[in-house]
Amino acid sequence: MRTSRPARIGQYTALLAYLVFLAFPFLWLLSTAFKPPRELGSLHPTWIPKDPTLDNFRQAFGEQPLLQAALNSLIAALGAAVIAVLIATPMAYVVARRRTRLAKAVTGWVVVSQAFPFVLLIIPLFLVLKNLGLINSVPGLVLVYVVWALPFALWMLAGYVRAVPPELEEAAAVDGAGRVRTLVSVTAPLLAPGIVATGLFAFITAWNEFFFALVLLKTPEKQTLPVVLTHFIGAEGVADLGPLAAAAFLATLPSLVVFAVIQRRITGGMLTGAVKS
User: Fold this and answer.
1) What is the DSSP secondary-structure string of 113-170?
2) What are the two backbone dihedrals, phi and then psi, of residue 239, each rounded to the nearest 5 degrees?
3) Are 243 and 56 in contact (CB under 8 A)?
4) Where does the ABC transmembrane type-1 domain start and stop, copy by copy (predicted)?
5) CB 28 within 8 A of CB 249
6) 33 phi, psi to nearest 5 deg
7) Which pTM does this prediction carry?
8) Distance from the first to the final alpha carbon of the chain
9) Per residue in 178-191, pLDDT tens?
């Protein structure tokens, strides 16, 4: 059915309002990052800085080790995303294709695990990392992020596996391919959009995570970017607004860049090229 013109106008208006709602925090952060102290304390704030300056960025890099913190966050987020995807892909294949009690139990575990609050997990995770000698280390934080991201990654990839027609795997079996060969050569290429989306989820979750990093990392040179951003807030809760906005703006860029680069892989057709010639 064709949509009437008033309905289309209403839809586009709602979409535009939603986009403005999403973009407002980022645009205001960008504006604040370039404002001098005089404009930051003004009673009549403006969208566009009247006298833009880079002093906030210079001060932010001068006060805190942002580059080292960004490197720590990148290592933790990228490591967690890669490991979580490598573990979750074969597990998701088994859960989606095997209709057994174990597969149902795993699915139930995935659902239940998402309801656990961080506070209940931090103590057992801390004890495990202490026994492994990984407290106050980036590899230990990577392990924690993998544990946290794995349930949702498994659930997400299992849905993509179920969308792959079993007939393709049956055809591969007729040609003599085993389970592992079928997963690697037939199913995995078709799961590329799902794998990319799952990896993006794990990366952004780890990049923005704060609580685990705050508890597990004590040495300043090993702290991640979200933890270092809190150093711009004084003991009395007064924020150094300009440098904080500059540092927070830089912290959001990797997520935006990663999403912009791989968005076509996420929205691409999942079964493109799946027809057997």
Assistant:
1) HTT--HHHHHHHHHHHHHHHT-TTSHHHHHHHHHHHHHHHHHHHHHHHHHHS-HHHHH
2) -90, 140
3) yes
4) 70-262
5) no
6) -65, -25
7) 0.80
8) 36
9) 777 777 777 778 88
